[in-house]
């Protein structure tokens, strides 16, 4: 197998490899001419609504990413976290990470761009939930050697739903604790104040 493109470490997900040199050349040309379409999934800090495009230059070069909010989850640490789909239209280093940070919604686990170094939550295995960067390549659409466009995709990693569930449970627990603390116990009634 021959590598056609790469993912920035520590991003995970689907990548493209080729069996022949001809496929490497054709796919390389497709990436260069931006005929390849990629979709990523991220969890970002804060409540991000709707959809949009970021065109912040990176290292003096044009760059463009589209985004769309998918799910919102309450978070004790961050108020909200948002699951977003991202489509890079250019391929700059750390482009999606920089663009989300620019919007004020850095990616969970991205200590380089403000996405917190350590989560307070842990998974059921005891491993810290944000030891990984919550940025994953889920889909890629590209031309085959015959010119036909073909889409390949994978499911969102289990750690995404596990983290959203952990955040939701922590939020519910915090709300329940707050409501218990706000309950004012009934005033004591002394025998002399008791009705006759």
Shape: elongated
How many alpha or pi helices?
3
Find the count of extended strands (DSSP E, 2+ residues). Answer: 9
SSE string, helices as H and strands as E: EEEHEEEEHEEH
In total, the number of domains comes to 1
Main beta-sheet strand count, sense and barrel state? 7 strands, mixed
Question: How much of the residues is beta strand, in percent?
Answer: 25-35%
Low-confidence stretches: 184-194
Would you state the CATH class?
A: Alpha Beta
How far is the first residue's CA from the last residue's CA?
Answer: 92 Å
Task: Examine the coordinates and then state which fold CATH places here, giving the name of the CATH topology.
Answer: Pseudouridine synthase
Could you name the CATH homologous superfamily?
Pseudouridine synthase
Give the rounded overall mean pLDDT: 85
Give the helix proportion (percent range): 10-25%
Helix/strand-derived class? alpha+beta
Written account of the structure:
The chain has 196 residues and is an alpha+beta fold. It has one domain: Pseudouridine synthase. Helices cover 23% and strands 28% of the residues. It has helices at residues 21-32, 95-102, 158-182; strands spanning 2-3, 12-13, 17-18, 37-45, 51-54, 65-75, 79-88, 135-143, 149-153. The strands form 2 sheets. Strands 2, 4, 5, 6, 7, 8 and 9 form a 7-stranded mixed β-sheet that branches. A two-stranded antiparallel sheet has the order 1-3. β8 and β9 form a beta hairpin. It is elongated, with a radius of gyration of 23 Å. Residues 184-194 have low confidence and may be disordered.
């Amino acid at each position: 197998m021959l590598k056609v493109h790469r993912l920035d470490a520590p991003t995970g997900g689907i990548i493209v490899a080729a069996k022949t040199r001809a496929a490497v050349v054709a796919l390389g040309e497709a990436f260069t001419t931006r005929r390849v379409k990629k979709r990523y999934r991220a969890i970002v800090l804060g409540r991000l609504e709707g959809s949009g495009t970021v065109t912040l230059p990176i290292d003096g070069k044009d760059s463009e990413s589209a985004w769309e909010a998918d799910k919102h989850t309450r978070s004790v640490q961050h108020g909200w976290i948002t699951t977003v789909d991202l489509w890079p239209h250019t391929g700059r280093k750390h482009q999606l990470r920089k663009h989300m940070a620019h919007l004020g919604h850095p990616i969970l686990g991205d200590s380089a761009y403000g996405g917190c170094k350590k989560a307070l939550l842990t998974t059921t295995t005891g491993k810290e939930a944000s030891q990984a960067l919550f940025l994953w390549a889920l889909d890629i659409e590209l031309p085959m050697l015959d010119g036909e466009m073909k889409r390949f995709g994978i499911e969102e990693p289990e750690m995404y739903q596990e983290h959203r569930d952990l955040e939701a449970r922590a939020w519910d627990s915090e709300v329940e604790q707050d409501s218990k603390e706000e309950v004012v116990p009934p005033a004591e009634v002394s025998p002399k104040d008791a009705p006759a």
